[in-house]
Amino acid sequence: MSNLEPLITVRDVTRSFGDDAGVFDLNFTVEPGLIFGLVGPSGSGKTTTVRLLTGLHRPDSGELRVFGQEPRAFTTAVRDQLAYMPQHFVLYPSLSVWENLNFMASIYGQPYTGRRRHLHDLLDFVDLGKARQRLARDLSGGMQRRLMLACALVNDPLLLFADEPTAGIDPVLRGRFWEHFRALRDAGRTLFVTTQYIGEVAYCDYVAVMREGRLLHLDTPTGLRRRALGGDVLRFQVEPALESVALRRLVSHDLVKEVRRARGQPGLLHVYTSEAGAVLPQLITLLGEEPAVPVLVAEEYLPPFDEIFVMLMEQSEARDGAAAAALLEEEVAR
């Protein structure tokens, strides 16, 4: 992350709703000019976190600051710099696309004579220019989401909270949403986006992983992959008959931590190392020494983030289990 002052600061924040529901001991910062993704399964606390940051909930304990202010006490000037796109459609179904957008502009006090160009630009940005006269209730779910995004951007906010903006829409439209988000980021805006689609982690600059109301990890997408895998992973495909020879040579390299055979795929080896880019050409050279082991495939292995998420969850559960066993052993010893 950059050296700029954080736009959002969360320190030891807890908001409990009883029966282990809520969020607990949250700690993170968000700096300006990036896409911050909050990812986790349904019910993990993502929406509660957004509502805390926008002032809709008050924390039971801890400290929240957005633009340097406590969200429940935002000044009008700060509220004008942020926008909130909720998960569900909350606009007026009996108004047209244009009327909804125009109404939102009037709420922000934008002069009627000067707003038309701006509103047309927003509709073009979300690909709704041709649908501006259609009633909101007649739009598809994806078009309603795009209208909500346009309305959230009507005041040209510096910070956008988007809660599950791509939930329930097809993969093609999800990709278009992220194109919009990246364009906003590139224009200097900051986006705080929640999602339960693990693959969308790849679109974020920084990611917080949540489970059961707690933050498990806070890192870049590349950092999360390295955490899950224990470093970088290279994939080598050789002739099955030469697999054992290749394995012995690869594991002998000083920078190779481990080599694993791929189950059910003869000749495929996964090589674990701390630095894939530097080690890959050295390992190809090593396998080329006499007697040579022909390399059919040599590349960095980048598993999808769905797999990475499962690995992180399993690691977390293993740590929790080990901690519980240690606590039980300690109590028995007493």
List keywords for this structure.
Rossmann fold, 2 domains, 6-stranded mixed β-sheet, alpha/beta, 4-stranded antiparallel β-sheet, 13 strands, 334 residues, Alpha-Beta Plaits
Your description of this structure?
There is one protein chain. 37% of the residues lie in helices and 25% in strands. With 334 residues, it is α/β, with parallel strands linked by helices. The chain folds into 2 domains: 219 residues, P-loop containing nucleotide triphosphate hydrolases (Rossmann fold, 3-Layer(aba) Sandwich); 74 residues, 2-Layer Sandwich (Alpha-Beta Plaits). It has a 6-stranded mixed beta sheet with strand order 5-6-7-3-8-9, with helices on both faces. A 4-stranded antiparallel beta sheet has the order 11-12-10-13. Helix 3 crosses helix 4 and helix 7 crosses helix 10. The mean pLDDT is 90.
Classification by helices and strands: alpha/beta
Strand content: 25-35%
Q: Quaternary arrangement of the chains shown? A: single chain
Strand order within the widest sheet? Answer: 5-6-7-3-8-9
The geometry reads as: globular
Question: Helix count, per DSSP?
Answer: 10
Brief synopsis:
With 334 residues, the chain is an alpha/beta fold.
Q: How are the SSEs placed, and which strands pair?
A:
Blueprint: E1 8-18, E2 21-30, E3 35-39, H1 46-53, E4 61-66, H2 76-79, E5 82-85, H3 97-107, H4 112-125, H5 141-152, E6 159-163, H6 171-186, E7 190-195, E8 206-211, E9 214-219, H7 221-229, E10 232-238, H8 243-251, E11 256-261, E12 268-273, H9 276-287, E13 295-300, H10 305-333
Parallel strand pairs: 3-7, 3-8, 5-6, 6-7
Antiparallel strand pairs: 1-2, 1-4, 8-9, 10-12, 10-13, 11-12
Helix pairs in contact: 3-4, 3-5, 7-10
